Amino acid sequence: MSLLRDLYQEVILDHSKSPRNFAQLSDANRQADGYNPLCGDKVTVYLKVEDGVVEDVSFKGAGCAISTASASLMTQAVKGKGLAETEELFKSFHGLVTGKAEEGVELGELMAFQGVSEFPVRVKCATLAWHTLQAALEKEAGIISTE
Amino acid sequence: MTTGQSMTAAGSSSIGESRLDVEQIRQDFPILGQQVNGKPLVYLDNAATAQKPRVVIDAIQEYYQTYNSNIHRGVHHLSQVATEAYEKARVKAQRLLNASESREIIFVRSTTEAINLVAQTFGRERLQAGDEVVVSAMEHHSNIVPWQMICQEKDARLRVIPINDKGELLLEEYERLLSERTRVVAVTHISNALGTINPIEQMIEMAHQYDAAVLIDGAQGAPHLPLDVQALDCEFYAFSGHKFYGPTGVGVLYGKGDLLDSLPPYQGGGEMILSVSFEETTYNVVPHRFEAGTPNIVGAIALGKAIDYVIHIGLERIAYHEDELFRYATQQLSGLPDLTIIGTADSKASIISFVMDDIHAHDVGTILDQEGVAVRTGHHCAQPVMDRFEVPATSRASFAFYNTKEEVDVLVEGIGKVIEVFK
Asked: Are B389 and B382 within 8 A, CB to CB?
């Protein structure tokens, strides 16, 4: 069970059962849809960006525990952050879940996803919301797919 | 017995007397003895691909080590041996399906290629604007998309037989869909996502009232039910080698001989021709007309070995054992809290799709994998089925004749672990 406990840490289970910032953002000025065709996970990320800062962020969607918790914790992590800072955070997070952690920014609660690196097929679950966030920031049109 | 029309009702007691020696059978499958994540492998993903008995693995090695050669062209010894083995495999597939002639067996890459072949030859030749192709709401994507493609090209219409909440086709709706415009009915024998066994005999008869041709997707049917294509009277029946305990990259398309004779080639190239000049090419006879290029020679030969093996064990005994497992697993899983089985047809094969309250299939799959249990999670290439039941994905346990009740127990304990992690 220990590998599983590493993967499904309390904070992840908590956020998957009661996701934070789980709503449509009425004054969003950017949004993007993400989709993982392998498991059917869908997520929409809403952003309010002012003067290069993520003033507000939320998400909606349906997915597995890892993808839901990741989206939830992501919204908490990037709220109030500058765009460059957000980009750095994603880089560090990506390194964490793929087991290629380098010197990066402080990940705080996001460290809970360290266990994902032992489950390579679940990396896409953990990064779907982040890829979608990135697309929303870049204002890419259309649906972002993990494939 | 739930296996419906293709099973003989008689003999269940005699089958019971000559029960499968599963422990002995498991010795024939080298892969089954291993550990996964420190636990004995419990392989319950047979609907995705089945494991291979040693005779199949040995046949592949024997071919490459002793008579690897191209077929139908060489006068030399090895080529003759390889050609003979390849054509023998065709006869084995013929016997398995009880086709009247071996030329009615076309070797393809997969069920998917078989359906594409029919859509691109029969469909291309026979479909006209306004004609209709009937499929069902429980089809695998591979029995939807090839028809969508040809319908779009020919301005024909794709009609869909709906299903009820148990995952059974609505035959009265099917009857209503059939008309003089129906050219093809393409339907699965057994649903890969729900396990439903469709009443194909009746459906074929109904289609023939309107002179429609019928293709049966037998990817899940052929490995688990005894077959007789002459009795069924379907125009086409397709199945994959790798779900039939054979290798990947080979499959079988059965087609009625006269019908195949009347169809144009699928792909152009070597083998499918009698003579070629830059002015004109004369096509080869059936089945070679549909087997352009060097085929998967070793694949066909090894599939022939798999057919021998399955026939030796006996498809009726296999169906009986799998049905017992299916009933036991259904009973055990039905008793679990928070678990709902998707697909509860009266006539079902040994496939169980399920969802768990508030726990995504992907998480279920990961936790079961830690227990050594391999199940499939996702949409099973049947997204319309997921939409029909309003679930994003399911977990699916699918059984083969080498599975045991003890393995069902490991699955059930594994689901207990899932609940434990998430409670």
From this structure: no
Dump pLDDT digits (tens) for B249-280.
999 999 999 999 999 999 998 888 889 988 88
Q: What pLDDT does A147 receive?
A: 55
Distance from CA of B221 to the nearest CA of A (A): 25
With an 8 Å Cβ cutoff, is B392 touching chain A? yes
State which residue of chain B sits closest to A8, comparing Cα positions.
B421
pLDDT of residue A105: 82
Q: Which positions of chain B have pLDDT values less than 70?
A: 1-17
- Domain regions of chain A by residue span: 2-141
Residue A112 distance to chain B (closest CA, Å)? 16
In angstroms, the separation between the Cα of residue B124 and the nearest Cα of chain A is 31
Cis-peptide into B295, omega within 30 deg: no
Interchain pair A39, B361: CB under 8 A: yes
pLDDT score at B5 = 41
Kindly state the helix (H) or strand (E) to which residue B361 belongs, with its residue range.
helix B361-370
Which of B:20-59 have CB within 8 Å of A? none
Residue B390 exposed, middle or buried by CB count within 10 Å (0-12, 13-18, 19+): exposed
Q: Which residue has the tokens 């997520």?
A: A43
| A61 interfacial to chain B (CB closer than 8 Å) | no
Q: Do A4 and B392 touch (CB under 8 A)?
A: no
Task: Please give the domain boundaries of chain B with CATH numbers for all domains.
Answer: 7-51+315-422 (3.90.1150.10), 56-311 (3.40.640.10)
Instruction: Say yes or no for a CB contact (<8 Å) between B378 and A17.
Output: no
In the sheet that holds B157-161, the strands lie side by side as B105-108, B251-255, B236-240, B213-217, B182-188, B132-136, B157-161
Q: Pick from A25, A36, A54: which is nearest to A144 by CA?
A: A36
The structural architecture, per CATH, of the domain A2-141 is Alpha-Beta Complex (3.90)
What mean pLDDT comes out for the span A25-39?
89
pLDDT at A94: 95
